[in-house]
Design goal:
The protein is of the alpha/beta class and 286 residues long. The chain has one domain: TIM Barrel, CATH 3.20.20.150. It is 45% helix and 18% strand. The strands form 2 sheets. It has an 8-stranded parallel beta barrel, surrounded by 6 helices. Strands 8-9 form a two-stranded antiparallel ribbon. Strand 1, helix 1 and strand 2 form a beta-alpha-beta unit. The relative contact order is 0.14.
């Protein structure tokens, strides 16, 4: 696993659309060819990669100098009314962590659950219990990967910015995945330079400055309504002010991996990397 980044790195959520085939190994070659920095391996429909393949992924990513993360299955709900689903959720996240670490991934991202018929307070307590149990096992097994809970875009989903940051304060070892498209869709107003700076300042206030020195970030254009996220869009087809967002990240000294989740997967990732480089260069010349 590579050390902490010293700037913003950019990658794709899954295999680039332009890759020769849909395998992670082919995706790594294409990410490198495109001049990007990393890739998030999508285990969203289940962890279907074996340890032999994971070892090959790790070797290739290391040789190419690429940074990896993994996204755990969508079928996780630590607040399910069904106790069996809660146990399955723990196992799915643990499996993602184990295979992700075998790939050399630095982070495993999780959608933690839904409120259902419970209050936000009760949901928080149940999800805290489930995630704490997983992180305890991760530590016992000495799995070298960070578990990251994602900020979510639908009002039905657990994962406001405040919930995520407070949970990360209370569970030692839990880290945030800051999805700015989700934050924008859920809040409906976090969409300008000052708004983005306030989000980042809140992260520092709650978790310390170190949280921005090895951050994990998701971004995409997004369509939304009064209940939050509807679907991801290409950045240029959305109202998300990504140029101000990049500027806010740079001015706040954020370092880490930005994963692009827009339908125009590598196109938007490359555009963001180019924009970040241009803004950094202009700043250095002042």
């Amino acid at each position: 696993m590579l050390g902490a980044p010293r700037a913003l790195l950019f990658g794709t959520a899954g295999v680039p659309l332009s890759a020769g085939d849909v395998s992670t190994l082919a995706g790594l070659d294409q990410v490198k060819e495109l001049g990007l920095d990393g890739l998030e391996i999508e285990f969203v429909k289940g962890v279907k990669m074996g340890l032999d393949t994971a070892a090959k992924v790790r070797a290739k990513a290391t040789a190419l100098g690429l940074r990896l993360s993994v996204h755990s299955p969508y079928y996780i709900n630590f607040n399910s009314e069904d106790h069996g689903i809660r146990l399955q959720s723990q196992e799915r996240l643990l499996s993602s962590a184990r295979v992700g670490a075998a790939c050399g991934a630095g982070s495993v991202v999780v959608h933690a659950g839904f409120y259902g018929r419970e209050t936000p307070e009760k949901t928080y307590a149940e999800i805290k219990t489930g995630l704490a149990a997983v992180i305890s096992i991760v530590r016992q097994e000495r799995i070298p990967i960070a578990v990251r809970i994602e900020t979510m875009g639908k009002h039905s989903q657990f994962g406001t910015l405040d919930e995520v940051l407070q949970l990360c304060r209370e569970i030692d070892g839990l880290k945030p995945c800051l999805d700015f498209a989700h934050i924008h869709a859920r809040e409906g107003r976090v969409n300008g330079y000052d708004d983005f700076r306030r989000v980042l300042a809140k992260v520092v206030k709650k978790l310390g400055a170190g949280a921005l020195k090895n951050a994990h970030i998701h971004v995409a254009g997004i369509q939304y309504h009064d209940k939050g996220e509807i679907k991801h869009l290409d950045l240029d087809e959305s109202d998300f002010r990504y140029d101000e967002w990049i500027e806010a990240l740079r001015d706040s000294g954020v370092e880490g991996l930005v994963i692009c989740e827009s339908p125009n997967l590598e196109g938007d990732a490359m555009m963001l990397k180019k924009l970040y480089g241009a803004q950094t260069q202009r700043h250095a010349q002042r």
